[in-house]
């Protein structure tokens, strides 16, 4: 009996009505909460990852195929945690461009002045076709409104042979692992955030962070949606049971019909 293939998807998860009511409300909600908490983001993230985040991001980009001299687009750049590692690996921050819908997050970044940063959304990228050698996105997949449209945009702006690497936290396979991660991310981190944050919404964003992970479509459907966008050699690499790295390559040439 043949197992049905996972279907491509559009929304990464159903509306989380504890935070916003409809899909149309989501983008406004996310922009506001990221703007409001940008000053605390790096501090809380360092607590969340026990200070290991930079090393992990760098290694993930290497596994994704990032090399010296590549022209990089980082989607959902935020405060620049992935882009900073990309600039080290490329050897020149001017080769890295970051895009994010939150002006507050962009303003809070401490990236080199030669790196280009601009407001923009994954579903409508302000770049020409076949423009970048490498595209990265760190922990922003759950915040995209339409994965199919966004992944088609990723394929469009990559050069033939260009590589893609999307980092995301996904559910652990075991029930104990799920309970442990949920307790840490939805309980411990928001509690700590209340004591060390400067902004009142910081604890809320980290609760939302977990809730969106819990509600996110399974990795198999993310892989199917990347393939449906025309990307090739799509695969998922998993670290420590929860850190998913979605890797893909844009075809070198148009495939015969």
List keywords for this structure.
alpha/beta; 7 strands; Rossmann fold; single chain; seven-stranded mixed β-sheet; 257 residues; globular; 43% helix
How are the elements arranged and paired?
Layout: H1 23-48, H2 53-64, E1 72-75, H3 81-90, E2 96-100, H4 103-108, E3 116-119, E4 132-138, H5 147-157, E5 158-169, H6 175-196, H7 202-215, H8 219-228, E6 231-239, E7 243-250
Parallel strand pairs: 1-2, 1-4, 2-3, 4-5
Antiparallel strand pairs: 5-7, 6-7
Helix pairs in contact: 1-6, 2-3, 5-8, 6-7
Describe this entry's structure for a reader.
The chain has 257 residues and is an alpha/beta fold. It has a single domain (23-170, 217-250), classed as Vaccinia Virus protein VP39 (Rossmann fold, 3-Layer(aba) Sandwich). Helices cover 43% and strands 19% of the residues. It is built from eight helices and seven strands, in the order ααβαβαββαβαααββ. It has helices at 23-48, 53-64, 81-90, 103-108, 147-157, 175-196, 202-215, 219-228; strands spanning 72-75, 96-100, 116-119, 132-138, 158-169, 231-239, 243-250. A seven-stranded mixed β-sheet has the order 3-2-1-4-5-7-6, with helices on both faces. α6 (175-196) packs antiparallel against α7. The radius of gyration is 18 Å and the shape is globular. The mean pLDDT is 90.
Task: Offer a quick outline of the entry.
With 257 residues, the chain is α/β, with parallel strands linked by helices. The chain is 43% helix and 19% strand. The chain has one domain (23-170, 217-250): 3-Layer(aba) Sandwich (Rossmann fold).
């Amino acid at each position: 009996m043949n197992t049905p293939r996972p279907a491509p998807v559009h929304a990464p998860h159903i509306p989380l009505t504890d935070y916003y009511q409809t899909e149309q409300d989501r983008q406004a909600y996310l922009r506001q909460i990221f703007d409001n908490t940008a000053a605390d983001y790096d501090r809380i993230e360092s607590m969340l990852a026990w200070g290991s985040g930079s090393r992990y991001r760098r290694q993930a980009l290497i596994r994704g195929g990032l090399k010296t001299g590549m022209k990089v687009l980082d989607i959902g750049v935020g405060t620049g945690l992935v882009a900073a590692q990309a600039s080290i690996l490329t050897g020149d921050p001017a080769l890295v461009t970051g895009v994010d819908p939150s002006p507050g997050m962009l303003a809070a970044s401490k990236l080199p002045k030669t790196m280009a940063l601009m407001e923009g959304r994954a579903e409508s990228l302000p770049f020409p076709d076949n423009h970048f050698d490498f595209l990265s996105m760190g922990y922003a997949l759950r915040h995209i409104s339409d994965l199919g449209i966004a992944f088609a945009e990723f394929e469009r702006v990559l050069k033939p042979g260009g590589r893609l690497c999307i980092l995301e936290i996904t559910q652990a396979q075991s029930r104990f692992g799920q309970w442990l991660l949920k307790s840490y991310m939805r309980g411990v981190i928001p509690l700590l955030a209340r004591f060390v944050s400067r902004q009142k919404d910081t604890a809320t964003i980290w609760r939302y962070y977990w809730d969106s992970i819990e509600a996110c479509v399974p990795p198999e459907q993310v892989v199917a949606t990347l393939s449906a966008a025309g990307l090739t050699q799509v695969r998922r690499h998993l670290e420590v049971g929860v850190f998913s790295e979605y890797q893909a390559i844009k075809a070198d040439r148009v495939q015969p019909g």
